[in-house]
User: Fold these one by one.
Assistant:
Number 1:
Amino acid sequence: MSNVLIIDDDVILSGLFQDYLEEEKFQVRTADNGTEGLQLALQGGFDIVILDVMMPDISGTEVLKAIRQQSHVPILMFTAKGDDVDRIMGLEAGADDYVPKPCTPRELIARIKAILRRSELSRQQQQDDTIIQTGPLQLWPQQRKATWFDKALELTSTEFSLLETLARNAGQVVSKNALSEAALGRALARFDRSIDVHMSSIRQKLGQQQDGHSYIQTVRGKGYQLIK
């Protein structure tokens, strides 16, 4: 049974989602403000956190940043429908994925299950203690640890999964859809920029080559490639 934490000041909507999730055999805890939600999230014990962007006391983005300082728990953000700014800010702050409001309980459950499937796959892969190395990059899938030029590389869970997928296919182009399946546990939706935002964050952390080019190349119309 997976444990879900919903942080949203809309208690009616949270209650509705809680009922549906519990019917799907999830165990659900809710918090109607960011302060309480942050405290609960940091106590641990949750498999995923559902976090609303707009809250009266502390914004969802600030709660997300605070959680990310101490925890890699998967976080799914509620964002306003069509608001790309909230989505991009959430992804840049370390959210694993987002779902726009209003959404149906079925869509929410599908997103949750996709993230949890990916998390379970990551745990299974962690049983493999093989070190992945390409150029100055080293990855330890079992520990979810990475180094870059022998220095620790701080990555979110989604960023690690993306970089691991690229590293396992270094020198080859990996499609955005394949990256979405590997990192988010779902097919890439039309106009979805999640992978692009996550990849931008990884690029900033890796820096540039001496010639000014990125270590991760965009292959227009195809996907991304990690340079060997």
Number 2:
Amino acid sequence: MTTFAEIQNSLYQKLNIHSPGERRKLLIDEMEGLTNKKIHCFNCSGTCCTFSANSMQITPIEAFEILISLEVTEHNLSDLKAALQKNIQDYRLDHEIFLGKKINSILRKTYTCPFFVAGSKGCTIKKDLKPYGCLGFNPRIENDNGSQCLSNTELLETRENVEIKNEDNANDFLKQELQLEWVKLEIPKAVLALLEKIF
């Protein structure tokens, strides 16, 4: 069985994909620029991270980089798996609702991110390892409290266009190495899927 460290080495050394921080630099710079204008999430209740608005889905490489942030060990593994399974059950993410043949789509459900802690802590994932969509979703006015936050789709697309080959290679590698059959999943489902394959 391939270890977490071996997969990490294959991604960043052998495949030579850009570092997580480098691939998120545009989004982090935007967020820091807004913070310098006192437009930030520090006083927000976490609207975009909770079931009131969050339906974020992530790719295998984003899930893998969340695992890096979590620093998974044999001591926290079972608690982490249990928390993810509870989150999936609480928000019924394990029950898909097919919207019909014409749309050929599955209903995207809202859920509270398992890595969000209400209060001043907020997101517990390191900035350089957060999902791209999370980094790109920001307030546009001071003291917004989530009412006018939105995605900077232009910046997200620019970032994706620069990194698409890199990330396609990383996702293809992870899908093949771990025998994954999905392109994107909700955060708890994606992270749990990788945990179950790697640990």
Number 3:
Amino acid sequence: MKTEKEKMLAGALYNGNDSELTEERSRTRKLVKKYNDSDPDETLLRKEILHELIGGYGKGLVIEPPFHCDYGSNIYLGENVYFNFNCIVLDVNTVTIGSNSLFAPNVQIYTATHPMDYKIRAEMLESGIAVSIGENVWVGGGAIICPGVTIGDRSVIGAGSVVTRDIPADVFAAGNPCRVIRPINQD
């Protein structure tokens, strides 16, 4: 029989009030608070916290406080990833971000979702769908990336966009819902 955590990571319905998951979220909240309360010159402390918090990342990671996430351990980042102030990552499922990707202030990345059927929701069951963001992506301020979305390499997401479906590589996309506006000429 699968644990609630195994169900969560598999994208199946799970009980978020499970004791193991509750304990992991509590641990994460403490690490996030410590990170967010740190002084800008405490670079060694911040590196230690990120090492304990984030599932995996390459060199050159910068996360400006405040930052918030559910678990942290389900976040995997390439090299030179930058999160500006007040970003949120609800990582009940895997969030994968390629190298050299930039996130403006207030970007929100959600893997968490809830059943449409109110009877199932009333049972306090939820699920998550992985999010994948390519390399050299730039996400504008206040954008929301919804569960299950993939954003292709080198694309730009306009500020305030709500990304509800996949965005291909090498495009500028914006709006609510986010849609491709035009290709980006890489020459």
Number 4:
Amino acid sequence: MWKDFREFVLRGNVLDLAVGIIIGAAFGTIVTSLVKDVIMPPVGLAIGNVDFASLFVVLKDGTPAAPYASLADAQAAGAVTLNYGTFINTIIIFIIVAFAVFMIVRVVNKARKATDARKEAAAVAVAPATKDCPFCLSKINVNASRCPACTSQLGK
């Protein structure tokens, strides 16, 4: 059983998948930081000093009752909140990741098409350099106007 498991794990596809998942998780972390730390602060500043991560609606007051100065204060009071600012950040993260994946797939598809086109071009049979003489059936050049073996006049 251990041998079968080791063979399964060491197959190329499993290792490729594992590397892809690890790189994807790291990429997700980078994009999350990009959105939270680089994109959203200027957007929030342009809108009027809004921190999207702290946008929320109180659904049920906690102890003490609302108003709460921040999302952290509302959560500390035990209030039930609808955190739509965090949701907006998550949507932006998703859009960036989806666009990055789209661009990667697009590049891979273009490379695959170019490779397929090269394979098809190589597979296309090269035009034959010789043909059979219709009179003596010997091999002659396709551009010959007379057969070198039987000297028959060939039509084009």
